[in-house]
Amino acid sequence: MAFGDVKTTQGLGDLNKYLAEKSYLSGYTPSQADVQVFEQVGKAPAANLPHALRWYNQIASYTPAERKAWAAGVSPLNAGAKPTAAAPAKKEEDDDDVDLFGSGDEEEDAEAAKIREERLKAYADKKSKKPALIAKSSIILDVKPWDDETDMGEMEKQVRTIEMDGLLWGASKLVPVGYGINKLQIMCVIEDDKVSVDLLTEKIQDFEDFVQSVDIAAFNKI
To answer: What's 70's DSSP letter?
Structure first.
């Protein structure tokens, strides 16, 4: 797949599609092809282009000096694109300089492999030092009483006695539902890996003297 001007919406869209199943533009490691397109893009793509944005942030995490040292790569920026590296100077036609066994190429391949391994190791070390993101959610619960004689203050007090690792209670208010009855609307923040929403609602419903039912009014990932 080739794509056109990445400064246009169409070009960025094509770049995003191209990177849907690729980490880099050419091969399995960053190359000058990535640098070329990175510089033409100029700024981070919008969030609705997740693959292009992920690639852009990855390339931007390297210093200019590191990017300059990357090997050549074939850029799909234009159909029929060729490697960005300059062609090597033509050697003088001297039979004495001909390497019949290709030992020079083997040495270059080994050196390139060594450099690639060092860069991959440096990248892995850099990634391992980044703190892991903690997935959280903000939830608003509707806690409904049995009738208008339910002590809403005591009901809220009972709800807030629930303590769980990864649970943080927030603001609350009473919302009229009719016939003089109010429901308790209370907010909380949970860590997704630690707190089950189903378990939390069950614990609230255990206060049978106060709580008739519990509904989720809003649920948002943070």
So the answer is: S
